[in-house]
Amino acid sequence: MRIVDTLTVFVAASAATVLASDTKQHDSDLLWGTYRPNLYFGTRPRLPDSLLSGLMWFGLDQTNWQNIRHSCELGDNLSEYGYQRHNGRDFGEQMLRDNDHGVEIKSEFIKVAGKNGGSWAVRFSGKTAEDNVEGVALVYYFGLEGNGTMAMNVGKGSAKIVGKADDLGLFSIRVVPSAKNKFPVIAQQLQKIPELSSVGKKISGIAVKAPKTDVWKAKDIFMREMFTSARKRVGFISKHVGADSEMAGSVLFALDNDGLKKRDRNLFFTQMVVRGEFSFDVIYECEDKNASISRNDISTLVKNRRSEFDHRFEATFGLRNKGFSDKQVEMARDAVSSLIGGIGYFHGSGLVSMDPKPEYGINQDVSEPELSTPYSLFATTPSRPFFPRGFLWDEGFHQLVLGQWDSKICMEIIRSWFSTMDADGWMAREQILGSEARSKVPLEFQVQYPNFANPPTLLFAIEKIADVQKTLSHTKSPKHRAFDMQDEDGENECGKDIDGFDLLQDNDQSENTDSMQESLEEMVGYTQRLLKYFLATQFGNGAAGKPMAERGYRWR
Q: Which helix (H) or strand (E) holds 431?
């Protein structure tokens, strides 16, 4: 009953407040991020129909070019992928080990605050396996789903994109491979074919006009364009040196800078074909000159933020101080970072039934499900390959961890979930928003029913935040980073004092306190509506008409 008691304080303090997270100005620090957790690496802003980016790669032997890596898939059999460090705001690093394609790739993401969400960069580095003589193709793309313009130029040592979008303003992008990258060795006779002059370049690219609703299908579009180009190259090779000559993958599947001079292109692919050690940088810059990023900045920023992360992780959780080994601390760090790196922004329509689903064994006609009005969700994901979308039940438990790390992100996610609530207090327990999300779910599991609920686990996180808020209101000068975990007797379950952490990562405690108080007050009307929904829909058989205290309840 403690949750109910905690929330009652805020019920008395505030009337129900209309929560409008989509109309509020987002925290600029949280606008851009690695918010495409279904991909091995991808970025997007927390804006609908905006600018998407992503990484792809594939081996160039006779079979792997048909299995381009893009979205996280269990069948890809990567021996390792996941974040070793991710602070949820401006830093994240992960390792991708792909033995089948003979390559390992490290991604290091950093962000600099500025106008329209600021600027960001990611450095990819790694090496191909010694027995991978064909090499690997590395592809990075940008696609514009909404209104705007983009153009790309590919030079000898880099590619540059300039663009403008309604929601992001002016921006520029550079994709810069290391001068030390090596192209796979190819036969002399192939190098002499004039139509293959683009082969062997440090970087190449193509530009495509794609339907705005299909930008998320970048892999399929890329494969179609690549195969079309490869068939032409087979013809060139057959013409000059014969049909039985060597057909190296590094020659067939290198891009040829097609479409770069055409207007109205909205999907741009850059490609680097490498063998051995390699690296390349992707730098996105907003029009704010104070948020510019040079290539030399990346190493320094990564080093500093890695150090800051490790210090903060120990200060927050105190695992070394509690006697845990280095391997145990590393495992915990990876687990927390992978949780944070799994945060995503989703937008689109969900498939919803207007009628409750009948009880098991009951035959009853149900109307055809309909697509909802498009809406957005900011959420963690239970599994990047299998469940890369929001799950209501899981979210409450995720926030018990995330809230210790960054209460502001925690509250942003809770607020986003409550913004999906309908007038009756129902929230779809599985958020399958948009065509990209639905493509990962069998049709029979896509429909959400208004009588299907999950336990209100979000209240656990709200309770902890309320506990901290209560402590703040009775303390003169504490600085909190995140809420602490206390048991019913007030003992600290995490073994750390509630004082000593900066809750919202700035030094204005009074502003932090007021902001959190306002956020908690926003929750009141939603928790009241949620309670009424449970009382009306989740009671057990034979409970109708009985006093509330005598009813039994179960989850449908």
A: strand 430-431
